Structure formats: structure tokens, C-alpha cells
Prior knowledge:
Elements: E1 2-5, H1 6-22, H2 26-38, H3 42-61, E2 71-79, E3 82-85, H4 90-102, E4 114-115, E5 122-123, E6 131-137, E7 142-149, H5 151-154, E8 158-162, H6 168-179, E9 187-195, H7 197-207, H8 214-220, H9 225-238, E10 253-263, E11 268-275, E12 281-286, E13 314-317, H10 323-326, E14 334-343, H11 346-357, E15 370-372, H12 397-407, E16 411-414, H13 420-428, E17 432-435, H14 441-445, E18 448-455, E19 464-478, H15 485-506
Amino acid sequence: xxxxxxxxxxxxxxxxxxxxxxxxxxxxxxxxxxxWEVEESPxxxxxxxxxxxxxxxxxxGKRPICQDTGIVNVFLSVGMNVRWEGTMSVEDxxxxxxxxxxxxxxxxxxxxxxxxxxxxxxxxxxxxxxIIHTRIVPGDKLExxxxxxxxxxxxxxxxxxxxxxxxxxxxxxxxxPQMGAGWCPPGIxxxxxxxxxxKAMLLAKEALMxxxxxxxxxxxxxxxxxxxxxxxxxxxxxxxGIGAQGLGGLTTLxxxxxxxxxxxxxxxxxxxxxxxxxxxxxHFELNGSGPAVFTPPDLDEWPDIAFELGPExxxxxxxxxxREQAGTWQAGDTLLLSGKMLTGRDAxxxxxxxxxxxxxxxxxxxxxxxxxxxxxVDPVRDEVVGPAGPTTATRMDKFxxxxxxxxxxxxxxxxxxxxxxxxxxxxxxxxxxxIAVGGAAYxxxxxxxxxKVLAFEDLGMEAIYEFTVQDMPVTVSVDARGESVHIEGPxxxxxxxxxxxxxxxxx
Length: 507
């Protein structure tokens, strides 16, 4: 009988979380490299370049790929002949592993988990509790899948109870455009079909952990209906032209994974959950011989590329920025920002709006300033700030008009698209919105030369900071005329892809 020791499980969970924070799964990395090699959209190619350069930097520096180090998902397959040695429950062992993994001093991971989710939303400070799923199976091993799921991609999960005669493909194609770019494509789509409402969602999440094999499946042809469905979804979603970071391009998905389960005759539950460019998971087993050992990927897996900007880049001094200058930028322009910028995201925006509604003076002067929607990882060693990639700009849309009109703010930086209300407010106030690349958090952090808290220190990573940056790369996503690259880019590339498909069919 296999004996699983408490300390072995705790240490394995902690080590796994550290490992996946800075190493992409090798199969995912290879798929990203292939997408980068064939991408023709300059904007998407530049975004993929940043993602791959960032990935290699993180592998070498052992720092998080993304500042959103995720909520922990653990899938356990417990052999029926396993015996446990310890005083804690299995759930407590896993949460102790999460605690140690996220508070490791040499690579502190951001604590993003909040308790009292519909109330005070207090940060638990150690990223516990994990989301744990347990299955009891024959055998004498403990198999474990550990994943760190970012909030941006998790927020785009979709579910529907379709009629039995409804098309899964049609439904997926209707919801993927609704996801926008906040899930940081390209990535993986997990699809769960059948069971009950909660089972379909679990199937979709489990599907995301499966190895990527779309290239092999396409090369040999589908062996069953599920593989045929995967290929159809992959091709049709990529034909939407959404592309890397939603900028328009050839690759939106690297793979589609589908899991099914028996369901009631009256139902067809379907769930879709995406995984982003910061996909992080690892599979291992414990057999009583000690904690798991994780082998780093070979650095040769990463392409030998550098992030270089072309001559069309515009250098911007944030310390002398005016609304008139920002008004000359056009959607799609690449900028290098230097100088002082503010930071703030959901909680800070809510406080600012509450202060405005009460007629109170804001704690920071926003006149002609730029605000970066970010919640960085804590710094270690000689870092000014830890990995500091953008959070989803769309979540700040509801605050945008009031803040622009009342504060003198001229620019915002996040990731993904802005909704109509925000675009209208940006146009009406002659402001701009920009994106930094999601999944390039460590690369972005290297541009930050100083950081200090200006307001709302109690909010931790959501406080208002002032960053001093040098040559921070961003792309104008919405210009002062209300033009959006996230609207125009996919339109252009979906048309190009459609034209190619038509040409191939004719020939």
C-alpha cells in the first residue's frame, strides 16, 4: 500500500506553483512559437514577440510570466489503495502548499484571492483557498494536476443550456466574439458538453489541462466526432480574425479541447472556458517515494528573438504630455512612454468615483496624466516592482466618463478592448486609451525604474502608485477620434482570411 506523507504533498504543491509561475508548458510554448512564425499581422506579430521574449526572460529569471498569478485549481485522482500519513485534511494540506508556494521569498507570487466575495472582498493575503476537485480511482498512486488560472480568462467563461437540436459550433461562434480580448489570446478553448450545468463547466476546465495536439490531429485527420468538432471550432474561430491580444491576425486559438459526458434527454449543457497566453499548469504523481521533482524545459525551446520596435515608433514624454499632443495619435500607433504615470484599477476607481459623488477632492492630481490599470507582483531582491502587466481595461469602462470629465485625465493603459460607453467618453473628452501586452508582465516591469504609493495604501496591489518608466511599449487602442484598433483589426483580418478560404475553394 502506498503511503502519501503530508509533507510530501504540501511541498509538491508549493514547488508546482513556483514552477508554473515562470515556465510555460512545453507543448503550449511550441504552439505559440508556431503561431509567431506564421503570423502576418504586424500588430499581432509584435504582441507575440513580446509574449515569447517575456516567457524566456521569466524562465531565466524565475519570475512570474504574468502579474496575475492566478487562483489555484487542483485536480486530484486518488488511488483506492493509497494511505495518508499526517494530521491535516487533504484540503488543508493543499492550501498549506498554496500558502508556501505563493509566499516563497525568492519569487513572491501575487495574492489575488478575496474572501467575502459579495461583501468586503478582503484579500486572504496568501492566495488560499484553492479550488479542489477530487476523484477516487483504482490504483496505488496520487495523480495531481495543478493550474493557476488568471482572472482575465476566467471572466470570459460562458455557459448555455442548449436545446438538444441546437448547434454547439454555432453557439461557440456566437460567444467567442463576446469574450473580446480580455482573455489574452492566443490561447486554448476548453469546451464541455453534457452532464449537468456544473458538470459541463468542470468538463471545460478539465479539458484545458489536456496536451495540445491539434497539429497532429489535423495532419492525420480526425479519428472521431470529437476530433472533427475540435478542428471545425479551431478553424472557424481563427477565421474570425481576432488575433493576438485582439489586434487582428491569423491565430486566435492554439488548440480546442473538448470533453463530453452523458446528459438528460431534454438538455444539452455546453460550457466554454478559455486559457490565455499565460497558460500555467503541470501534471505529476506521488507514489510514496517523496515530493515531486519538476524538470525545467530546455532553453532551446524558445526562439532566439529580441523585442525590437521599428522606426515608426513614437517616443512620448509623459511629464510634458498635453491633450493636444495625445490627440495626434492614431489607433494602432506604437508608443514608447517615459516619465511618470499613475496606476489604479477596480478598487481604486470605485473609491475615486465615490469621492467625486460626495464632492470631495481627489487625493491625486490627474491633470494631463496617464493611468495604468495594473496590480503588480511584489518586488524581490533589487527589483523596483515585480511583474506588472495590464489588467482588463473593460472593467473600468463604467468609471471612465465621470473620471475623464472630472479629473483632467488624458490617457489610460490596460489590456483588451473598450466598450461603446468608454469609447464614446474617450472621444467626447479628446482622451486616448492604450494597451500593454497581456502575458508580457516581466518585460513591462523592466521599463519601470521607480515606484511609490500616492494614495489608498490599504488596497495593497490595487493602491494608486506613481511609476517612473523608461521606454514602456504600448499601442494606441482608442484614439481621440474614437477609432478602436480592436474593432478595425479583426474586421480587416477576418476579411483577409475569408478571401483566402474562397480562393482555396475555387482553386
